[in-house]
## 1
Amino acid sequence: LTQDELKRIAAYKAVDFVKSGMVLGLGTGSTAKHAVDRIGELLRRGELENIVGIPTSKKTQEQALSLGIPLSDLDSHPVIDLSIDGADEVDPRLNLVKGRGGSLLREKMIEGASKKFVVIVDESKMVKHIGGSKLALPVEVVPFCWEFTAERLRGVMEGYGGCEAKLRFGENGRAFVTDNGNYIVDMYLEKDMGDLRVVSDEILRLPGVVEHGMFLDMASTVIIAGELGVKIKNK
Ligand code: DER
């Protein structure tokens, strides 16, 4: 099975949790894309009705619109029944790293407002400690004096083994700009960070920081699709 087939299997399994009449948080990324496609298909076939989607990015909004999924937003629906989204890393306590697709702020707002948050991954996303891999831990920052903020992030991480902090660039060779008009500074940590909650608070206290990609204690369920089948882990 290819990685994309595993992503689709996890996504379709998550959509089994969807009931007619639900307000759904629609995730962003290559795994969540399959879930949104599946929801559109079940609506079209009449197997689901009265669904309202709350998209976590402009990209997902466009995909949902093209599928005819009725859309709304958090202002109209401050409580969401179920959100389905992918993740970049999942640790044994279901803490996540998200945001390598750049949508972490709206994802965290919407998934934080959800009664149930189902994460869908292929098995390659499972890690012992989040932030321990050489992959990016995204931080959304205001564009104003982003270098100052990046330096402050490096300062905070000094106490946790150190990190590189680099501005993310888009395909056009210019700074990547999020749906919210902000920049992303990707942190590459030297080693796993131990107590994540402390790090999380210290990062969020920096004035130029908007949000980071550690989703701690947020996932209710993680669906993991692997070569040997699908595993479901609950909080
Ligand atoms: O950027 C994001 O937050 C995505 O949800 C990411 O965490 C997972 O993307 P993928 O399903 O394409 O791996």
## 2
Amino acid sequence: DVVQSQLKLVILGESAVGKTSFLHQFINNTFVDKREPTVGAGFLTKTVDSGDRQIKFNVWDTAGQERFHSLAPMYYRGAQAAIVMYDVTKEDTFGRAKMWVRELQRQAPANIVIALVGNKVDLCNGQQENDNDTAERQTQTEDAARYAAECALLFFETSAKANINVEAVFTEIARNVPLE
Ligand code: GTP
């Protein structure tokens, strides 16, 4: 018999860092450009096989715009895992990610697994076909990795667009959350 475990996960981060796109890539294996900002929050699920068990991810996709900040505690309450996302080409979004990490470490369940995720690496990995798809990296990998290590976070750099490392974030979270 296959054992099924449920895992409640919340994704947080500044508006437009790519949270909805990232979840869409994980769940539907596609990238849709030009999305509307999330209003309130979205809820998505995906069941993944992991060894002899199935893990059902119950994911809250929060809205990054500041006016929705006060809703966040409703979504991280009782969460076993959180993804805190920033855009590697926008320095201020990294600052915002650090703020979310501090808030989670103060207010979320004590044993929550947090993954720091720098998204949009496709914009600065030198593989673009034209200049409109390039941007300068503003947060260096080493700096983010060092911060993640100091705060005991999982750390990844990803692209929702080019499907880089998306699946890996969820696999690693599942490995680190104590499941029933
Ligand atoms: P809110 O809902 O406002 O919190 O935003 P969000 O974080 O969910 O961002 P969303 O997924 O709506 O993406 C914002 C913009 O970034 C869209 O135009 C996406 O197409 C684009 N985008 C998302 N991920 C990537 C990526 O990995 N690479 C590139 N180049 N663009 C991306």
## 3
Amino acid sequence: NFGRQRGGSLSARHVLVTAGPTHEPIDPVRYIANRSSGKQGFAIAAALAERGARVTLVAGPVTLPTPPGVTRVDVTTAREMAAACWAALPADCAVMVAAVADWHVAPAEQKLKKGAGAPALDLRPNPDILAELAARADRPRLLIGFAAETEQVVAQAEAKRARKGVDWIVANDVSGDVMGGDSNTVHLVRADGTEQWERLAKVEVARRLADRIAAVLA
Ligand code: CTP
Ligand code: CA
């Protein structure tokens, strides 16, 4: 697809993208989740593939079609997402867009019954896939995380970038109707400063980010 190409090509580059929520089961019929639709991550995978990258898209439970030319691996839980990411390495770049559940529980084998009283959920931390990826020997050369924030968006994203040891953080203002919607307000936080972006369609956020990635990797 040459029509869409802007800036450098990403051919011969492998990019890992995570997208969507994770679901953490509580019992056979219930789970912990979040409002991520997967739209932003899928749009990024599509934009990278349009530029010629080989893209592995590790997707949580979403109802979206696989973008053309993208290799998709479907997962449910954060621990499955971590394993799928490690299996996809090595990669030149990783864009971790997924809204990974921060906790899981040991699920009950049978459906919990309300007659037994409200169950206490014993929440245990999930692996931080992005932080673990940053610490690996086979860390991608360009490692990009998202930071979903509802307040002090850029300041929290800057702290998150340093704490997680990643190159760029896409600071995502998720107050309002971002989750599930078609547009997004993001800022690109790098070590040398922050680029403020206006509110854009998610597909346009994806194209701009692909531009920035291609400028580094091409
Ligand atoms: N992330 C991840 N694995 C997790 C949690 C988050 O890979 N278990 C990644 C997300 O995909 C995102 C980045 O880390 O790229 C930041 O996610 P976010 O939820 O904003 O940050 P947390 O570090 O989980 O902190 P908090 O939710 O407390 O703000
Ligand atoms: Ca989190």
## 4
Amino acid sequence: EKEGFEHFMLKEIYEQPKAVADTISPRIKDGNVVLDELEMTEEDIKKISRIQMVACGSAYHVCMCGKYILEQMAKIPVDVDLASEFRYRQPILGDNTLVIVISQSGETADSLAALREAKKLGHKVLAIVNVVGSSIAREADSVLYTWAGPEISVATTKAYSTQLAAIYLIALLFGRTREVINQEDYKKYVAELGRLPEKIQRILDEKERIQWLANKFSHAKDVFFIGRGLDYAISMEGSLKLKEISYIHSEAYAAGELKHGTISLIENGVLVIGVATQPELFEKEISNLVEVRSRGASVLGLTLYGNYAMEDIADFTIYVPKTEDYFTTSLAVIPLQLLAYYISVARGLDVDKPRNLAKSVTVE
Ligand code: F6R
């Protein structure tokens, strides 16, 4: 069933344009985002005073993106918790807090327990789930399904991308309903959503360059992914992908936090991957990269076409197409998935079934 691909992971990476299109397009009607499955009236959406997002692993990284996107697009304050923390920390959620649980499998024990905790506290739970009819889908008040199809590889790729797509849809619907996005911007965003699959495809078509970089860095011992804002959230996912299938130690850091301790680990031979897609933070990120480079790190930059200033500082640069600032994660994550994949292949590891890991974590 790998359909000619060497591994499920690569097949699933290549399925992303279709998975993202399948998740978005049925929900755009006459140029508007329509999410009947939320079963929320305009009134319900206007009443939300806070959003609490909960998940594990990569789905948690989607929540981190969700915080930046929902707060900025819908102007609703968002808190994010790891499900394993949320369930035991006796959370205090104010009135009219909407809880969003994200899970590919819909069976993750901690995420299910977090959902139950939120319901016990009397809050509405919206689940973003891939597996139809799974426990989380059944117990949530409403479900927004991601249409990624079955994901076999332990390391998630296409589910992650469709979860992000679901967040964009929710942010647009909430922002428009609450009248904090004007009609012109709304139309521009909706149109751009439709172009994401083709832009993802363009990155996939350039996979040879990532493969070349992966071979170059396959013996790395320590890798730091740094970014600010949404780029920090992408860094978290890039780092997890790399460590889980290549067994290379890696960490994601908010770039501005490096100098509060971690920069002491930067020395010759360390690889720093600098993610810089957000225009307002670009200069700041570049100055962080100058700092690590002057301490001997090799720098791999990841930015948008047009930001050629990256080449002044980075040893190598990966470019992705331009899109709306809120949607860049969907593009920037693709080379990071490919990088992790090809490094794992270069190291001769079991890409689809990394050691010690299970696809669905149904125990604590
Ligand atoms: C990483 C990965 C895991 C899952 C996590 C949550 O590639 O796949 O971190 O994201 O175990 O799983 P779900 O989404 O099924 O709740």
